[in-house]
């Protein structure tokens, strides 16, 4: 990754069955992204057996299209439950450290990376220089996640402190916060931050208090693509979320989402964030797995609390 290169396109996706044909990477590469973000269920490990998990990663790593892809596009990522090792699991899953090592090997994480020494796969990456700068913040919503309840946590205190620093001490114009499962939707019975209401309120408050501009949430998990937005509590501007799922399989179902601001797309897909710095505009794009653009939702950087693009001063308390 060349951190000095002005970022124009960032691609992302999730839910990748390792034994399905791994041919979709050519269509993603054709969009010429500056970065690819794995958002979880990157393989369907569902195991505490290290050899079995690594064999599944090897299926992806050995696919010719993926080998071409990683030679062309920088790759980063986080995980969700199936590559973590167990459906809907959190801190109670005992093989999490072992499986973390396997995932970092899959991503080609350097041997001296802090991710090799910490408990959890959270990380951040900067692309470009201010005012044409994007900070990608990848959360680990598994390693320290408590069982869902009103007061349960998703991240653990060390990760919360780290996240605050990533937002507070940043000169980026756009902050992408990625996580395996959805942040905003709350109308379906499956996994979402809405099952952790205090943690979600804490996230909203942190975004407001740090005055981080241009925050866009990224997620996977749901086997369809969706774009949501809300402005509640202390948030100083509308908070958008782009869900991209899945790469090899999709639900084909329509799902209720009170926060939806663009059409749901229910076939295999990947997501793209495209930046037009000259016009001060961000486009959230959902692409079919063959590369065809299916959904486009445009945002103005000035409307996302961005002082470099004509926004008014923050009014969050």
UniProtKB/TrEMBL annotation:
Q: Which Pfam families match?
A: PhoD
Record-annotated PhoD-like phosphatase metallophosphatase domain positions: 12-248
TM ranges: none
- Reading the lineage from the top rank, the first entry is Bacteria
Task: Report the protein name in the record.
Answer: Putative alkaline phosphatase D (APaseD)
What is the species of this protein?
Answer: Plesiocystis pacifica SIR-1
């Amino acid at each position: 990754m060349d951190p000095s290169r002005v970022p124009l396109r960032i691609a992302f996706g999730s839910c990748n069955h390792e034994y399905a044909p791994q041919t979709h990477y050519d269509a993603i590469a054709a969009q010429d992204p500056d970065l690819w973000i794995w958002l979880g269920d990157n393989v369907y490990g569902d195991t505490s057996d290290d050899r079995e998990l690594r064999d599944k990663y090897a299926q992806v790593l050995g696919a010719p299209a993926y080998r071409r892809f990683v030679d062309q596009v920088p790759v980063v990522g986080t995980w969700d439950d199936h590559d973590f090792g167990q459906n809907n699991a959190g801190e109670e899953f005992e093989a999490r450290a072992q499986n973390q090592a396997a995932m970092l090997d899959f991503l080609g994480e350097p041997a001296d990376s802090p991710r090799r020494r910490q408990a959890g796969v959270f990380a951040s990456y900067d692309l470009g220089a201010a005012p044409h700068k994007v900070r990608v913040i990848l959360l680990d919503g598994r390693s320290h996640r408590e069982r869902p309840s009103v007061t349960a946590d998703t991240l653990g205190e060390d990760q919360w402190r780290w996240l605050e620093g990533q937002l507070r001490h940043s000169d980026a114009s756009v902050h992408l916060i990625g996580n395996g499962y959805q942040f905003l939707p709350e109308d379906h019975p499956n996994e979402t931050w809405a099952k952790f209401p205090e943690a979600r309120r804490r996230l909203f408050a942190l975004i407001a208090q740090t005055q981080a501009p241009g925050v866009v949430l990224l997620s996977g998990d749901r086997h369809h693509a969706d774009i949501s937005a809300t402005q509640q509590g202390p948030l100083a501007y509308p908070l958008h979320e782009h869900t991209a799922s899945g790469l090899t399989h999709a639900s084909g179902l329509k799902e209720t989402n009170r926060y939806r601001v663009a059409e749901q797309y229910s076939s295999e897909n990947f997501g793209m964030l495209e930046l037009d710095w000259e016009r001060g505009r961000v486009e959230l794009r959902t692409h079919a797995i063959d590369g065809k653009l299916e959904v486009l939702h445009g945002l103005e950087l000035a409307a996302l609390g961005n002082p470099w693009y004509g926004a008014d001063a923050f009014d969050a308390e």
